[in-house]
Every structure is written in structure tokens, then in C-alpha cells.
Design brief:
single chain; mainly beta; 275 residues; eleven-stranded mixed beta sheet; ten-stranded mixed beta sheet
Amino acid sequence: MNQLFSVCIISCLLQLISSSANGISLQSMNSWISGGQQESGYEEHHFKPLGTLNVHNETVGSIVIKTWARPMLVIKSVKHIKEKKPKPALHISVDEKQASITIDKPTDDGISIDLELMIPEQTTVSITARGPVKIKSIDGSIYVKTQDTIDVRHIGNSITAISESSCSISFHTIPLKSNISITAKDQIELALPPETNAILNAKAEHGSINCQLFFTFKPFCTKLNKNTWNQMRKEINGYLGNAQNLSEEKYTESALAKIDVCSKNKSINIVNSRD
């Protein structure tokens, strides 16, 4: 009897695997095994550039945001649900300049909603989440806070990023007066263009700091000993690029870009975004 049951299970799994080319993913297979189900949703809304998008996801689902040149907001959602469990509520409100997407906290962490959004490039974005967040090619300012990882690529404006995990952020430009604040529990990788001129304050509480760009320390008085060298590997305050000369000759410090980076448990890597 047990052998017959095992053969039936293996046969069903093989059928699911052979059907993957027709749109059944491993994630779907996992949902089937655990008694879960999926529901997909799709919406389009007229949404002008320079608008504001607010997303609040109380589930552990992922959020992926991409951009395009069209004045449209596209919302794709995938609900991972369980039988006899209430579905998490998805609230969507959109007008031409303001959009809000809210997902209520579920009764079970096995219930979640993944979001994939297409928005105009010049959109201001604010996200609070529990799951991973990925953003690509936004020129508006960004606020993102999550208990999971943050991956932001090819941006060119101010950002505040707060992660209970790791954080990876890449810029194609750093405008004057922009504010960049990154706080993460684990590893931080910050990729900046080589011509970046900014005030930099970085601290790795239990790791080290590596910087591939030219950096000038702010003057300070200290003894040259082992403690000083160890502290300089963990905390730096000064200027990236030509920011020090700019602040002395052309701009006040308040006009320069400011970058604050802090990792609680791991290292901080500041690299060239064009390498």
C-alpha cells in the first residue's frame, strides 16, 4: 500500500515537472505540495510622471518595481494562499498623480502577496515591507524599509534605505543636494559613479569599510596606534572625489550631496558603478 502511494506521488510530481514549460513553476509545485494555491491579478491605470507611489506590504511577499517612459502604472500581483485561511486584503487607490497600494497583515506567514509594478521613471516612491524589495531605474526620490533584502539599481536621486538584512544600491549619477542614507543589519554594497563629489560618513559597527573611490578624511587629531588604524577601518568621515575643494571654493557643504552609510553586523563596500 505504501509503495503504491509513493508511486502515485512520484507520478504526480513528474507530471507537474513536465508541465513547467506550460507555466507551472517550482514555486507553484511547492504551493501544491503544501496545500497552497495561487491567484494572479493585473491592473492598468493612467499615472503621470512626477507622481507619488506609496506601497505598504504587511506580508512576506516580494516587491519588484521597474520603470518605463509611458504615463501608466501596471500592477501585477500573485497571492499565495491556503485553503480555509482568510486571504490578505489588497487595497489599491490610483489617480493621475498619487497611487497607494496596501496589503494587510495575514493570519499566517505562509500567506503572502508578491507585487510587480511598472511606473514612470520620474516617480517618487515610498515602500514599507516585510519581504525583499527590488527597484530599477527610478529618477525620483526613494524611501524603502523592509525586514528583508534591498536591491536598487541604476538610480539618480535621494534615497533612504533601511534593511534588517543586506542592501545593494547602485547609482548612475549623484546630484548636488541629494541625500543618501543607508542602514542595514548585514552587508552593504554601494556603487557610485567615479566622478561622485559628496560628503561621506560611513560606519561598520562589527565589520570593515572598503572604498574604491578617492576619499579625503576630514582633519582630526589622534595618536597613530593600533586602535586608530582599527577605528579608521570601521568608521570614516570626509569627502568623496573633489567635494572638499568644492566646499572651499564654490559651494557650501549644505549644497553638496550627503551620503550616510551604516552596517550593524557586516562590512561596507563602496565601489565604482562603471566597473
